[in-house]
Amino acid sequence: MVRITDSIARAVSITSRTNPLVVTLSKLDDTKFRRSEGLFLAEGIKLSEEAAGMPEIRYVLIRSDDGMADERIVRVAAQSPANAKVCVLSTSAFDKISTEKSPQGIITVLAFPERIHHRIAGRMADEHLRELHGKRILAVDSVRDPGNLGTMIRTAAAFGYESVCLIGCADVYHPKTVRAAMGALFRTKLYMGDSVSGVFEPLMADGHRVIAAALDEHALTLGEDPLREDDCIVIGNEGHGVSAETLAAADAVMRIPMCENTESLNAAGAAAVIMWEYFRTFHG
Predict the structure, then answer these.
(1) Which of 30, 107, 162, 277 is in Cβ range 3.0-4.6 Å of 61 for a Cys bridge?
(2) Are residues 222 and 105 in the same domain?
(3) Are residues 154 and 48 part of one domain?
(4) pLDDT tens, position by position, 106-123
């Protein structure tokens, strides 16, 4: 343990749960408030280490009643941008903000990283198509569980997917999404659209093959039919699968071969299997 102010001279102390900053940040567990403020929470030592140095950091919050903290926590706080505020909070004030059951003593508050996370209003822009040209893409269609969404983003990063397209999905800045995605959320380019046609039509026009993961007797079979390195694979909703609109727009459907009497994998599991097969094919 080290004394915080010895290492971070600019750190300020907040003890009251009714402090205006504490009250404001405590509302970031609400989706509408996150969007209105353009801020989200990254909680815990590992996530804060992953975020360290990002220009989007606005606050680093450290829990401490006696001015002391873990060396890793102080080191992360000291690496924050000069314009970020480092606040030492009482346990009561810190717990008002935290969404964790067992907080680790540090919360990093970041602005939405719009330099890598793009919201698409209508049709995907030419600049986005240039970024995606020739690359493998994971597209996620109407996945509503934040944990599933975060897991897919993390898995995509593990298997070499630099970009993920999201259509009508859960909030990527929901605490459960951030926690499940871990540091992948800070490295992955996200394209968040509200329209199937606005995302897939431009990709197809640019030469990508859009393939929906679904059960169909006429589907391509993963592991048997040829893959293309710039394919865009679409994973659908947890309960209903890929939407009818996406199925109608897709170039093809792909199924994962499984044992008999097995209905399906969950969305995150299916995404992992398919992305692994592409990784094995092109990087094995």
Answers:
(1) 107
(2) no
(3) no
(4) 999 999 999 999 999 999
Query: What distance lies between CA 225 and its chain's CA centroid?
Result: 30
pLDDT confidence tier of residue 32, bands split at 50, 70 and 90: very high
Q: What is the reported pLDDT for 284? A: 66
What is the residue range of 213's domain?
Answer: 117-283
- In tens, the pLDDT along 234-245 reads 999 988 899 999
CATH code at 21?
Answer: 3.30.1330.30
If asked whether residues 94 and 164 sit together in one domain, one would say no
Bridge-based pairing of strands 137-141 and 163-167 is parallel
Q: Do 275 and 145 share a domain, yes or no? A: yes
Query: In the listed set 84, 111, 138, which residue is the last one of a domain according to the structure?
Result: 111
* Number of domains comprising the chain: 2
Residue 278: closest CA among 211, 193, 217, 203:
211
